[in-house]
Amino acid sequence: MTEREWPESADQRAAAGLAERLERVEQRIRRACQAAGRDRSTVALLPVSKTQPVAAIRQARAAGLSRMGENRVQELVAKAERLGDLPDLAWVLIGHLQSNKVALAARWASQIQSVDSLRLAQALDRQGQSLGRPVEVLIEVNTSGEPSKFGFPPDQVPAAAAQLRHLTSLRPLGLMTVAQQSSEPDQVAACFARLAALRERLRQDQGGGWAELSMGMSGDFDLAIAQGSTCLRIGSAIFGPRPVAAADQPSTA
Ligand SMILES: *Cc1c(COP(=O)(O)O)cnc(C)c1O
Fold first, then answer.
1. Cβ(129)–Cβ(169) under 8 Å?
2. Closest CA relative to residue 48, chosen from 247, 196, 249, 227
3. Mean per-residue pLDDT for 181-194?
4. Alpha carbon distance 225, 104 (integer Å)
């Protein structure tokens, strides 16, 4: 349509900007992997598309990104419906999940990284039973102790993880955290180290499993790679600054 009429449309410029930011992120990831003596292939990138318009997600898909993280269920579902024509696009929920939206989340998200209570885990397990497939989950841990953050306190995680083993329609894959918002790299790294240590503890308790460590965002993912992250959740460094309430605007895609 209109985007074909000009050699360089606003859409094309936006796509070029995204590709450039993505390349810079990729370079940062490679450098951090190298510094940590890790293979690039051991760290997955989960782009976080929250508040970004569907047009930006189309550009991201065209740039080769095939999973998108969203922190609100309604927004995830609305975008998934509008982008139903895109092949192989998977959605990951990374924000707090309210019990009245559990069914929607289980149906539309390929993975839920924000399991922050046993009740939520049990509700997702029931959804898995009725869907006839296991629900992939990560346990969210509040590694900073900040009251504003969701997640299990670290000392409750081993018991919760043991409980999850009885929920046969859940597939617990690992742990997720949002580090302390701090200008002190040591404090941020300490949050990541705490999550990695917890994961080791679970592996010992359960004889393996718990492979995933979802940690690291635009501002701190280099530190997260150094501490063993397997999944970087990166929003603004890929998509640019978040527009306000862009998801509520009419689609141009
Ligand atoms: C928004 C968000 C991110 C990405 O944040 P950026 O700083 O934009 O990279 C990662 N994880 C969670 C849980 C988020 O809500």
1. yes
2. 247
3. 96
4. 32
Alpha-carbon span 183 to 219, nearest angstrom: 10
Assess whether pLDDT exceeds 70 at residue 201.
Answer: yes
pTM of the model: 0.93
Cβ atoms of 7 and 51 within 8 Å: the answer is no
With both helix axes pointing from N to C terminus, report the angle between 10-36 and 54-62 in degrees, rounded to the nearest 10.
Answer: 60
Q: Which mutation among 217, 221, 244 tests ligand 1's pocket best, with the greatest number of atoms within 8 A of CB?
A: 217
Looking at the predicted structure, is the pLDDT value of residue 186 above 90? yes
Could you read off the pLDDT of 84-121 as tens digits, one per residue? 999 899 999 999 999 999 999 999 999 999 999 999 99
Which pLDDT does position 247 carry in this prediction?
A: 46
**Residue 33 pLDDT exceeds 60:** yes
Residue 199 one-letter amino acid: R
Tell me which residues have their CB closer than 6 angstroms to ligand 1.
Answer: 48, 50, 71, 94-95, 178, 217-219, 233-237
| Residue 136 to residue 34: CA distance in whole angstroms | 30
**Could you give the domains of the chain?**
10-35+43-239 (3.20.20.10)
Task: Give the mutation target among 21, 48, 238 for probing the ligand 1 site: most ligand atoms within 8 A of CB.
Answer: 48
Nearest CA to ligand 1 atom 4: 235
